[in-house]
Amino acid sequence: MRPRNPICRGLLAVVTAAAVLGGATACVGGRSADGRSHDVAEEADTRYGPAPRPHRDVTYQPDVVLVGGGSRSVRSVTADGLTWRIDPRAEGADTLARGKVMFITGRGVGRVLDVRPDGDDLAVTIGPVAITEVIRDGRFTSDRPIAFDRMVANPAGEPFWAETEESGPGTGGSGGGRLPGRSKSARIPAGQFNVTPTCCATGIGLHFTYDSGGIRLVGTLELMFEKPSGTFDLVIDNGSIRTAKFEVTGGTGLRLDVEGGSALGAGHNINRRITVPVDFSVPLGTFLGVPFSATVNQSLTIQTAFSAKNGNIQAKARYAFGGKLGFGYQDGSFDAWKPTGFQVKNSLTNSITGISVGVNGLLFAYQARLHVGIGAFGFSTGLYVGLTASVGVTIGSALGAPITVCRGATLTLFTDYGVGYRLPTVVVKVINIFLRVFEAKPIEAEGGIGGTTNVLNRNEVVPDVPLCRK
C-alpha cells in the first residue's frame, strides 16, 4: 500500500512545470498505455522515477539488471530508501541476486544487498553504487539549462538515519525518540528535531526546532540563490570517467539565524547530525535511455556547549557572494569553481547575544548538495557539487561583565564536488548495522572520484582584546 503524505499530495500541480525539461508527462485525462489513469501513472513516476530503457549509444555494465515496467512495477519503498517491494513478474525481476545492480526507475537503482519473496511481492534491498558501476559507455550532456527552481519535494517518511547522535566528548541529553504524527505543513520529523526544508527559487534552506532533555534550539540556515540553473556534461568510457563538467549559477549568499538555551548546563549537551529526509528533484528526461534527474539534499550537524544552567545564546548573520559552483574534470585532473566576492552584510560576531554565568557556544555545519544523475536521497549517484558552511558562536560569562563579555565567531565555507556518491560516515555506520540482519556486505562511505576546495575562513572576537583572544 502506498502511503499518502501531505507533502506528496499536490505535487501533480507542479509536475507540468517540470515537463519543460522533458522529463515528465503533463497531467491529462484518460488512461495510460498500461491501463492506469494518467494522474496515477504520473504520480508514480514522480515518486519513483521513470523507467530506464536500452539505447544503442549506451552500454550498461554486465551485472546491471533493467527491471521492466518502471514505476508500475514498484509496490512500495521503505522510508529508509533501502528496500524496494516490486512485482516479481516484472521482466528481469527473476534474475536479481545479491551483487547485481537493480535499475528499475530513475530513483530505484543500486547494488542488490538482499532479495527475497515477501508475500506477493519481491523485496529487494539495495545499497549505493557509483554511476560507472551502472554505465560502462556513454555521453550525457544537457542541451538546455537545468531550472533548479522547478523542483518538487520527495519525502522519505521517518527513516532511521534521519537524525543520529555523533560520537565525541561532552555529548548528552536524551536518546533518539520519534515524534508522533505529521503536521499538515512541510515540517518533517527527523528524530527529536522538526525540520522544514525549502527549495529552490530563492535558495536552499532549512528551518529546525528541538526541545528535549532541557535543551531548546531553533534556527534557519539558507544558501541563497536567484533563479539557480545549471549545465552538465559527462563522458564515461570503458567504465571510467573521461570528461565531466557540472556548473551551477545564481548563488547570492548565505543567511543564518540561530538561538539556543539550556536549563541544565554542563553535562547535558548534544552533538547530532540531521540528514534531512526529503530531497527535491526534477526529472531531466532520458539521456540515451537513462532517466536523469536533478536533485538537492541537505544535512545539518549541531553541537551545543552550555557550561551553566539557564544559559542562552543567539546569533544571526548574512553574507553575500557571487560567481558559480561546480567543477570540470578531464583525464584525471579537476578544476573547481567556487564563490567569489565575499561581503559581510550582517556581522555574525556583532550579532551574538546571551546571558549566562558560564560560557555558552553553538556549532552548526550545514551542507546543501546538488546532484545530476540517478538514484534518490543519500544514494544519488552522478555529478554533484555541494557547499558546506561551518559556523561556531560563543559568548563569555556574564560574570565578566564588569571587565568585558567576550564574543567569538568562526565561519568556514568549502565546496565538495565529483562524480559518484558520498554518504556521511555516521549514516554508513548505522546502515551497516542494519544490514547485518541480511548478512549483507557493508556499504562504503563513498564511491567515484571527487575533491574538496576551501572557499573562506573567518575567525573573529569582540572586543579584540587580549582577554578575549586567549
The first-to-last residue Cα distance is 60 Å
- Average pLDDT, rounded to a whole number, is 82
Structural class: mainly beta
Q: Assign an overall shape.
A: globular
Characterize this entry briefly:
Keywords: Signal. This protein has about 475 residues and is mainly beta.
Report what the structure shows.
The protein has 470 residues and is mostly beta strands. It folds into two domains: 12-136, no CATH class; 139-462, no CATH class. Helix content is 7%, strand content 51%. It is built from four helices and 27 strands. Strands 1, 8, 9, 12, 13, 14, 15, 16, 20, 21, 22 and 23 form a twelve-stranded antiparallel sheet that branches. Strands 10, 11, 17, 18, 19, 24, 25, 26 and 27 form a nine-stranded antiparallel sheet that branches. β18 and β19 (290-306) form a beta hairpin. The longest helix is centred in the first third of the chain and has 11 residues, at 38-48. The model is unreliable at 1-34 and 167-185 (pLDDT under 50).
Question: How would you describe this structure in keywords?
Answer:
globular; twelve-stranded antiparallel beta sheet; about 50% strand; 27 strands; disordered N terminus; nine-stranded antiparallel beta sheet; 2 domains; mainly beta; about 5% helix; about 475 residues
Task: Lay out the secondary structure.
Elements: H1 12-18, H2 38-48, E1 59-60, E2 64-66, E3 74-77, E4 83-86, E5 101-103, E6 109-118, E7 121-127, E8 135-141, E9 146-147, E10 152-155, E11 163-165, E12 188-190, E13 193-198, E14 203-212, E15 215-237, E16 240-262, E17 271-275, E18 278-287, E19 290-306, E20 311-322, E21 324-330, E22 333-337, E23 340-346, H3 348-351, E24 360-374, E25 381-395, E26 407-422, H4 425-435, E27 446-462
